[in-house]
Design goal:
The chain is mostly helical and 657 residues long. Helices cover 46% and strands 3% of the residues. The protein contains 23 helices and four strands. The strands form two sheets. It has a two-stranded antiparallel sheet with strand order 1-2. The protein has a two-stranded antiparallel sheet with strand order 3-4. Helix 9 crosses helix 12 and helix 15 packs antiparallel against helix 16. The radius of gyration is 25 Å and the shape is globular.
């Protein structure tokens, strides 16, 4: 179709990256919002298109989904005031059914972090990948709309200005076309300089800037690819790290190993002047390796990490070329396997863009890998009322659809004739969303099994997630076993595959982590290099993941009592024991994938109730209910600040000093 972008390499000096005249105010869209369309395809991929001609607009009318996410009027009729909880739920779904995509799932944004868009922009600039003019304008508008009062940007949209957020987003807004004398750029630059300038940017920022040529590689702590050559059985081998750390370290280690940097041009020279209050060419770069701005320092390096980095820095001065070559080749092969396992979606946008740059540095712009990466990076770009953002994954399709289906069945709304068609479409989508095979490159790429699993977003993305597998299976069982009008496309064998995967994910203490088993101890946190994130080096058990497994397995054994009954019973008992032990003295649980105590308590109380543990029968459920009641607000609802986890971190540190 005429409005589908074609992957064509663009020079960094081409008009595709030329300066733009940006309005001073971002209150109004920088593009015609009536021309944006969301294209859904291939099992849930989301790509926003901008229609250039009136003929294209006429051929592809804007629908309710487009209008809602763009913040335009939907024209939907007003709903009557609800007088009962059931009527409130009915009203909610009467509206929400209009947001269902034609293939049966619900599309939506998954934004918030402010370090994702810079990766897509900087990585695309490095790899000679352009954006449409409309994409550039709306990404700039999004950044303007999320500047803080002091002109900077934070780690996320609610956070205070940091060097990490301000440095990366300043570079991005300049690459996208904002001129240096624009008031937004002037104010952001002043904020960055007040924070000390980009020398104190955390590790990921140092790395992106080194690839871009505005930070010297000598200012980075080593990211040695030789770690991939260690024996797999060693407890420090990278395959034992949490997947989001390991898959980011992987392309970083390759790019560090070859010290890839793009050639200088006028923009690079300008950024060298703008990012630093001091003379770029007089900075002593080795002194910056552990220089992190105070505002950014959430998880300081340990003395052990700094000692090992010093040793590795000495090694870098005398590394053995044959060994480095072997390590670089090993890392690059693992990058290829990650791309192929995920159809070039990769785990998430951070490792996706590092992989993209690594493949570009090796394969060039004429390669198939360049073309596929160019196309798939748009899966992370989302248009909204504030402009174009980059999401934390390629969507949350399975997660959102699974809970919507469950809510419809549990409220009884699923039996209303007006909603049956949408539910049938949901079942069709869920049928296609289940992974039916293990990854193409399985054990050799250090992957956990995926056969029978559901992911957070799409089948194509290809990663097992424990609670998504539980909630996806639960949604399928609700549709196929709790309703009398649905077909049964997901066979018993495929449900058993999902159960097999969940059983394979239980850790030795009974809990469930996120993507795979815990592969190393929490002592690995002594090696955390990230500065802005804590408790990231290895997998951890999570109450919400564990309770999703309990719930889905409890429902499954009611419908299939003869399949691995002893294994399921034992798994549930151990998971419940973990849940009991992880309850806080106040009666709550610490949630990690939502905010925070309320979120975890929602999952925990549901799973306990399914097993007969209620307010009257269980001291654990009793304490949980009392905890929730004590936190209920005057208007009858519950609320919680995202800062609760930060305060818990501070309290933990204070109690150990």
């Amino acid at each position: 179709m005429a409005y589908t972008p074609t992957p064509i390499p663009v020079s960094r000096e081409s008009p595709a990256w030329s300066p733009l005249d940006i309005p001073y105010s971002s209150n109004e869209p920088f593009t015609d919002y009536t021309r944006w369309r969301l294209k859904v395809s291939d099992g849930g991929r989301h790509i926003w298109h901008y229609l250039k001609t009136d003929d294209e607009v006429a051929a592809w009318p804007q629908n309710t989904v487009d209008k809602y996410w763009l913040g335009l009027g939907t024209g939907l009729p007003a709903l009557p005031k609800a007088n009962t909880p059931y009527e409130a739920a009915l009203n909610g779904y009467k509206f929400y059914q209009n947001l269902q995509s034609e293939d049966g799932h619900w599309a939506g944004e998954y934004g918030g972090p402010m370090f994702l868009l810079p990766g897509v922009v900087i990585g695309s600039y490095i790899a000679n990948m352009g954006f449409t003019l409309e994409e550039r304008l709306e990404m700039i508008r999004y950044l303007i709309n999320h500047t803080n009062e002091d002109g900077g940007w934070g780690l996320h949209i609610e956070g205070p200005s940091t060097v990490f957020g301000t440095g990366l987003n300043y570079a991005s807004i300049r690459l996208l076309g904002m001129k240096a004398d624009h008031p937004v750029a002037v104010k952001a630059r002043a904020c960055l300089h007040k924070l000390g300038g980009a020398t104190g940017i955390p590790a990921w920022g140092k790395f992106w800037f080194s690839l871009l040529g505005v930070y010297d590689w000598a200012g980075n702590n080593p990211v040695p690819p030789e770690l991939w050559l260690l024996p797999d059985w060693l407890p420090i081998h990278p395959h034992r790290w949490w997947i989001h750390v390991r898959q980011v370290f992987l392309p970083m280690s390759y790019l560090y190993g070859v010290r890839f940097t793009i050639p200088e041009n006028d923009m690079i020279l300008a950024l060298r002047e703008e990012l630093y209050p001091e003379d770029y060419y007089k900075i002593h770069w080795p002194s910056q390796r552990n220089h992190i701005a105070a505002i950014d320092l959430y998880s300081p390096h340990t003395k052990l990490y700094d000692f090992l980095s010093d040793i590795l820095s000495l090694y870098e001065n005398c590394s053995l070329p044959p060994l480095r070559k072997l390590a670089v080749e090993r890392a690059y092969q693992l990058i290829i396997w990650e791309d192929e396992n995920t159809s070039y979606q990769d785990l998430a946008p951070v490792n996706k863009m590092f992989n993209l740059v690594a493949r570009f540095s090796r394969d060039g712009i004429e390669s198939e890998s360049w073309r596929l990466h160019e196309v798939k990076r748009r899966d992370f770009m989302w248009m909204g009322a504030e402009g174009m953002m980059v999401c934390g994954t390629n969507g949350s399709q399975l997660w959102d659809t699974g809970f919507i289906v469950q809510a419809l069945v549990e409220t009884g709304l699923a039996n209303q004739e007006q909603f049956k068609g949408g539910l049938l479409k949901s079942l069709e989508w869920l049928d296609g969303a289940q992974m039916q095979d293990n990854p193409k490159h399985f054990e050799k790429a250090y992957r956990h099994r995926t056969k029978g699993a559901f992911g957070f977003s799409t089948k194509e993305q290809g990663y097992t997630v424990s609670d998504c597998t539980g909630e996806g299976l639960k949604a399928v069982m609700y549709l196929q076993h709790h309703l009398d009008f649905t077909p049964k496309p997901v066979s018993a064998r495929r449900m058993q595959d999902a159960v097999d995967t969940m059983l394979s994910l239980q850790n030795s203490d009974g809990g469930f982590a996120s993507y795979e088993l815990i592969r190393a101890g929490s002592w690995s946190e002594y090696l955390n290099p990230a500065e802005v994130f804590g408790n990231i080096m290895v997998e951890y058990n999570y109450p919400e993941c564990s309770t999703s497994a309990i719930t889905s397995l409890a429902i499954f054994r009611k419908h299939y009592p003869n399949y691995r009954s002893k294994d399921i019973d034992r798994c549930i008992r151990r998971a419940v024991d973990y849940l009991h032990k992880s309850q806080t003295p106040e009666g709550g649980w610490v949630g990690n994938w939502g905010i925070c105590f309320t979120y975890a308590a929602m999952f925990a109380t549901e799973s306990l109730a399914l097993l007969g543990e209620t307010y009257e029968t269980s001291p654990f459920a009793h304490r949980a209910c009392e905890f929730l009641l004590s936190k209920q607000r005057a208007d009858g609802g519950w609320g919680e600040s995202y800062q609760v986890r930060w305060f818990r971190q501070i309290l933990r540190v204070m109690r150990t000093e």
